[in-house]
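USER:
Try writing one entry.

ASSISTANT:
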Amino acid sequence: RGSRGKPIVNLLPLEADERINAVVPTRDFPEDRYVIFATRDGTVKRTSLEAFSRPRANGIIAIDIREADELVGVSIVAEDEDVMLFSDSGKAIRFAATDVRAMGRGAAGVRGIKLKKEQRLIAMIVVRDGALLVATENGFGKRTEFADFSTQGRGGQGVIAIQTSERNGPCVGAVRVGPEDEVMLISHNGTLVRTPVADISTLGRNTQGVTLINLDDGDQLTSLARIESVDEDEDE
């Protein structure tokens, strides 16, 4: 039961090896908006939002996930927006949403970023207002302006978003942030730090970043999340 004693409803029946990876809120299903998906092996797929307007009790197919792959990110995107994909190697690629042709729900998608065998995709961002915040396993990170990343064709290796040096470790997260936002940093051992975005330095692409969180020996940063600022009127 929930915190107020109300029964918890199973909204989506899952198979034994399935779990929910993303939640995308929407009230309408306009024809000029799309759902864009990204998977761990660098595959992307764009499907009309309208294709999801008639759900079924047991769910509907959204993307055909290949064996040993898994969903990493889902967003709603317009045709005039750009998308960025980020790998654990610290590289990112930016391309137009329309560079991914619209496909049906059952399609598997196309290559978004070229990854080496040992690399994986860790995040997807739709480029809008604000800046990019990236973080690495050893607790380092930085803000970088989206303008530092030029638009190119999908399927390439991308460019350096943050150096994954021995000091930094691999990249573990990337989020879009505004100057009034905060970020939540979570470590493997359960340490949680909430930091104002304004306190994080803005640096160029090919740099190592600054300390975001002080970790104990053996601990690692595992994830970060944006906490969007709320105006006083909205709070009231």
Observations:
- Residues 28 and 53 are 8 Å apart (CA to CA).
- The first strand starts at residue 33 and ends at 39.
